[in-house]
Design a protein that fits this description.
353 residues; alpha+beta; 2 domains; seven-stranded antiparallel beta sheet; 11 helices; 44% helix; 18% strand
């Protein structure tokens, strides 16, 4: 499947900044993405098998290092302890890593708590409107809460823990302890979430699998970790993980274990859960979508292509009136979740009697 190799960076418009400030996402940071770009030299990082990870460990001059490390520790407190500086004396910057792969070229910060020798990570990236919309929509519409901060052209993101999807497919599908039926069910639900909220490019290395032991059975959740392609591409299949060759083995599991009846059940379950999340955050999602409908986060050609393909997919010509990716997303949420919203309203009404 063809993917735009270099997605342009979209600036954050003033309306979106006001939204971020309203919901405590916009803060004044002690360090910026550009500050980290001034490193003196770097060394490649290899995994345990000797493969190049495409990440580099970067080093700064002695004159800059103390200031940069202090700024990075302050960012950690802002992200995780609401700026409480009491913990900073126990933190040390273990490594600053830089990735040359992909659009965002992020820095990954590895910190160590000297009290217990535990490690933690967070990311510093260039602020991009597509990514900000994607993060915020994930926070509102998915079962996962997302922690991130923005300051001018800098974006701070929490690390999302889990086994990288490509590693999981390669190394865990043959593990007898893995419940493949549950993996197939979760992939169906993940596929549905991505399509409804128009999150694209969910190839296996753009999501992780979170494994949680439960008292009877292990639970699995697929979590997106890359939000660059939020409502950007024009091809409908870009928003359906099932069509990426990297996810073929997961699709095979679904074909093997999921019947048509079960497929519809899982899709209905996911739509109902998304509808419930919209109801509980209806003012916040309205604020976000009102801004997104006026923002330009794709090209006119891609907007035209996507609305045409979705109109054909749903046999609904109302998509053709959309003039932006935000309008298409708003229409898609309404089109796919209206039935679930009505059912929830009906149940709420009946519960009174």
């Amino acid at each position: 499947m063809y993917i735009s190799k270099k997605k342009p960076n979209f600036s954050i418009i003033p309306e979106l900044r006001r939204y971020l400030s309203k919901y405590s996402r916009e803060v004044l940071l002690p360090i910026s993405y550009q500050d980290l770009c001034h490193f003196d030299y770097s060394m490649p990082i290899y995994d345990s098998q000797g493969n190049d990870t495409l990440w580099q460990s970067v080093m700064y001059s002695q004159a800059d290092m103390n200031e940069i490390h202090n700024g990075l520790k302050k960012v950690y407190t802002m992200l995780y302890t609401d700026g409480n500086m009491d913990v900073i004396e126990h933190l040390t910057i273990d490594r600053v890593e830089y990735c040359t792969f992909g659009n965002s070229k992020p820095f990954r910060i590895r910190l160590r708590n000297t009290m217990n020798d535990n490690y933690g990570y967070y990311y510093i990236k260039k602020a991009d409107a597509s990514r900000v919309y994607g993060l915020e929509l994930e926070h509102i519409l998915s079962p996962n809460k997302i922690n991130f901060l923005v300051d001018r052209e800098t974006l701070i993101e929490d690390h999302i823990a889990g086994i990288p999807g490509d590693d999981f497919v390669k190394n865990y599908f043959t593990d007898n302890s893995i419940n493949l039926i549950r993996i197939a069910k979760e992939f169906v639900k993940f596929n549905e979430r991505c399509f409804i909220r128009l999150l694209g490019d969910m190839r296996s290395y753009n999501y992780v699998v979170d494994i949680t032991p439960d008292f009877e059975e292990t639970q699995y959740r697929i979590r997106a970790i890359d939000f660059d392609q939020q409502s950007y591409e024009g091809k409908k299949k870009m928003y359906l993980p099932q069509f990426f060759k990297e996810n073929y083995l997961a699709v095979e599991l679904c074909m093997q274990f999921i019947t048509d009846e079960a497929l519809q059940q899982y899709q209905t379950e996911e739509r109902t859960l998304m509808a419930m999340r919209i109801r509980s955050s209806r003012y916040r999602i309205k604020d976000l979508l009102d801004i997104m409908t006026k923002d330009e986060i794709s090209t006119p050609e891609k907007v035209e292509q996507l609305k045409t393909e979705l109109a054909e997919h749903f046999q609904d010509d109302s998509y053709l009136t959309c003039k932006s990716m935000g309008e298409i997303l708003k229409k898609n949420l309404r089109n796919t979740l209206t039935k679930s919203m009505r059912q929830l309203s009906k149940e709420k009404y009946l519960a009174k009697y």
